[in-house]
């Protein structure tokens, strides 16, 4: 029997303003959000609606949402959750997709030597040291670095350089296109902006879901009309930058061994895969006994880092699908 763990997506269609007096004590005084999906009978948290409508509708819903997200320059919002217990074994098995023609990759790519990215043919990322230790004390900056090194070094086509960029919160400002703590909205500092641990109330404010572990926002370049561009005609939105948040309300750990704890490295490796243009792959299988009752056992097939949810076991090594999908994006880099 198969069941599904669907990816959530949200749309941010109105301004979100947070103000604060210091970088370490974010006290939002204004949080505004609206959704314009009422006409489609969709809320921010529309996972259940999508599940009920089945696979084909799910794809079209994602396409609709991705279109509307243009208003904020966001090409996609990806949310990584703990897999939930299936409540209906008759549900379709659905792999969340964002691109109908190429479902294991995201619908956007970085362009090497893109003038809008300062003609770089490498990729850059920053981590925010100030936010790199979780509330429960897991110092993670080295883990974040290590997980980018995994993507850099452990594929068969490691000809794209993913370089850490010097960064200081005090001098560079918050590297977030979504949150601006009292400052003007910040443009991209690096291709990948790893914000680190973000307070759970901000996840709540964006209705990202109570059991969300992390979220990756992907921003596309837009033309003067506000439409996403595809200047090299590869059928992909030209990626501007990405932004990753980790939910500071999660019981993070460095091994995921304690029941209920979540391995930071596993989640980071998955989210950074999205920042590199990988989509989800793998199907979630639930086991049912002779009475049709869920046994409590969940497995993905095939097992890989880009499985769409966390089911309790650390995955720090790239599997075959991870490698091959990465190579689809980067085997020819920096050429087309
Ligand atoms: Zn994901």
Structural class: alpha/beta
The CATH topology assignment is Collagenase (Catalytic Domain)
Low confidence ranges: 1-59, 65-70, 86-102, 180-185
Percent of residues in beta strands = 15-25%
- Average the pLDDT over all residues and give the rounded result: 71
| CATH-scheme architecture | 3-Layer(aba) Sandwich
Order of helices and strands: HEEEHEHEHEEEEHEEEH
Structure description:
It is built from 6 helices and 12 strands. Helix content is 20%, strand content 20%. The chain has one domain (38-330): 3-Layer(aba) Sandwich (Collagenase (Catalytic Domain)), CATH 3.40.390. α2 crosses α5. The model is unreliable at 1-59, 65-70, 86-102 and 180-185 (pLDDT under 50). It is globular. Strands 1, 2, 3, 4, 5, 6, 7 and 12 form an 8-stranded mixed beta sheet that branches. It has a two-stranded parallel ribbon with strand order 8-9. Strands 10-11 form a two-stranded antiparallel ribbon. Zinc ion is lined by residues 78, 80, 270, 274, 280, 308.
């Amino acid at each position: 029997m198969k069941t599904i763990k669907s990816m959530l997506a949200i749309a941010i269609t109105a301004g979100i303003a947070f103000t604060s007096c210091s970088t370490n004590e974010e006290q939002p005084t204004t949080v505004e959000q609206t959704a314009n999906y009422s006409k489609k009978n969709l809320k921010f948290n529309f996972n259940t609606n999508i599940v009920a409508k089945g696979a084909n509708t799910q794809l079209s819903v994602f396409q609709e949402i991705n279109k509307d997200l243009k208003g904020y320059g966001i090409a996609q919002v990806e949310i990584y959750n703990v897999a939930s217990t299936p409540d209906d074994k008759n549900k379709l098995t659905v792999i969340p997709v964002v691109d109908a023609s190429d479902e294991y990759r995201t619908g956007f790519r970085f362009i090497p030597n893109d003038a809008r990215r300062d003609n770089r043919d490498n990729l850059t990322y920053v981590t925010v040291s100030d936010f790199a230790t979780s509330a429960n004390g897991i110092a993670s900056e080295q883990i974040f670095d290590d997980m980018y090194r995994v993507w850099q070094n452990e594929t068969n086509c490691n000809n794209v350089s993913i370089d850490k960029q010097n960064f200081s919160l005090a001098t560079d400002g918050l590297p977030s296109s979504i949150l601006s703590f009292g400052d003007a909205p910040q443009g991209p500092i690096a291709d990948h902006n790893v914000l680190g641990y973000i307070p759970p109330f901000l996840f709540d404010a964006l209705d990202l879901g109570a059991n969300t572990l992390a979220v990756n926002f992907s921003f596309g370049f837009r033309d003067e009309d506000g439409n996403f561009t595809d200047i090299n005609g590869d059928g992909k939105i030209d990626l501007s930058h990405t932004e990753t948040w980790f939910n500071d309300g999660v019981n993070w750990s460095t091994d995921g061994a304690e029941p209920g704890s979540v391995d930071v490295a596993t989640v980071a490796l998955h989210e950074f895969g999205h920042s590199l243009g990988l989509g989800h792959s793998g199907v979630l299988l639930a086991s049912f006994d002779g009475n049709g009752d869920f046994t409590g056992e969940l497995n993905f097939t095939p097992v890989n880092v880009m499985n769409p949810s966390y089911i309790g076991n650390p995955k720090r090594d790239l599997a075959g699908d991870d490698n091959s999908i990465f190579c689809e994006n980067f085997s020819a880099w920096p050429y087309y």
